[in-house]
Amino acid sequence: MIDANLIIRRFTIGPCRMNGYLIADPHTHIGAFIDPGGFCDEIAGFITRNNINLRHLLFTHGHHDHIDGIAQFTQRFSVQGYAGKDEVRFASHTIFGNELIEVGNLRIRSLSTPGHTPGGISYYCGNSVFTGDALFCGSVGGTSSSAQAQIQLDHIRRNIFTLPDQTLVFPAHGPVTTIAAEKYANPFFN
Amino acid sequence: MSSFENKANGSTFIQTQIKDRCETDRDLSFWRLSESTIQSVTLNNCRFNFCRSTDCRWQNLHLDHSLAENAFFQNCNFDNLNSHTSFHTGSHFANCQFQETVGELSSFGLCVFCHTKLNNSRLSEVSFIGSVWRDCEFNQGNFNFVRFPAALFVNTKFTNCTLRQAVFRAATFLNCRFESCTLTESVFQDARFTDTTFKNTDIHQAANLEGIRGLNL
After folding, report:
1. A7-189 CATH
2. In which residue ranges of chain B is pLDDT below 50?
């Protein structure tokens, strides 16, 4: 109900307190996990209680805190991985941005958000966008150079800030936010 | 509990007591409440948008993975509000009092607070991005990595607050006061201060004071 068209649940996982998100089609209960940085009983319980058929792992990028749970997920579920180019070895599907990934009846659009890493990807579905370490509440992800920082800002402006203002933003660290709040008040863009 | 449905697909409650409700996966938007008491209500994965509440007492309201956006609260008391991974974006609070609020990973982005007090709040990684605070008081708050980027504070006091890694990047303070607060590793980058005072509070505890204006450091 937080998004009328999909099941969403946040789990804070790993020592870096990363937010991983389980999303699923409320009709077929086919689901995907965004950034499997770890696994915990809370995730297992939610999947069991809600009869989620987990089939996909979606990676925003390949840093360790976002991928450390791959083995634990693959031991339990038959899943396929999706990530940007050269980001995650496990991912058999390479995405570049603007692809549609089918999760049950859901259509998840990939959005190119490089800068924090070269192949950074965000995922947009329903009224929600999952921005990994590209866009945080009031901040942006760290980059290795000012050129990469500019690339990141440009891609966020072009691919994230063009989403509707009321879109819910779920970053990989820190609090949730909205496109309107970030577009009008994030100091890195103003 | 008595209520009647209004035209906006919500419910109207006047001088009503709403008690012990636990709602999951429901849309409870457009509630109108006046002079009512709401006690022990849990909203899990619910929508509670466009709520209008005046002269109400909210006790033990718990929100988890819920939307409570674009609400308006006037002369309301919140005791033990608990907000977890929820959105309160674009809401307005006037003459309200929050007592013992607990929040984690939620957003109050673009909210406006007037003549509002937050007492004994414990907030962790809560966002107040772009919020406006006028004639407000923060008393004995324990805030961890709470974010106020681009917020505007006017005639607002922080007293006996622990602000650990608080983010005030590009915030504006007009005639504000920090008294007996700790600001460990907080960020005031590009913040602007006018007629703002610090008593028993060391702004040098902050991790980032780059680009601030209006203070003689």
Report:
1. 3.60.15.10
2. 1-7
Domain boundaries, given as residue ranges, for chain B: 4-205
Work out the burial of residue A145: count CB atoms within 10 Å of its CB; fewer than 13 is exposed, 13-18 middle, 19 or more buried: exposed
Interface of B with A (CB under 8 A): 25-27, 45-47, 65-67, 85-87, 89-90, 105-107, 109-110, 125-127, 129-130, 145, 147, 149-150, 167, 169-170, 189-190
Kindly report the nearest CA distance between residue A26 and chain B, in angstroms.
Answer: 11
Residues of chain A with pLDDT under 50: none
Q: Which residue in chain A has the smallest CA separation from B148?
A: A138
Q: Which pTM value belongs to this model? A: 0.95
The domain spans of chain A are 7-189
Rounded CA gap, B50 and B83, in Å? 17
* Shortest Cα distance, chain B CAs vs residue A76, angstroms: 26
* Cβ-contact B216, B196 below 8 angstroms: no
Options 2.60.40, 3.40.50, 2.160.20, 1.10.12; CATH of B4-205: 2.160.20
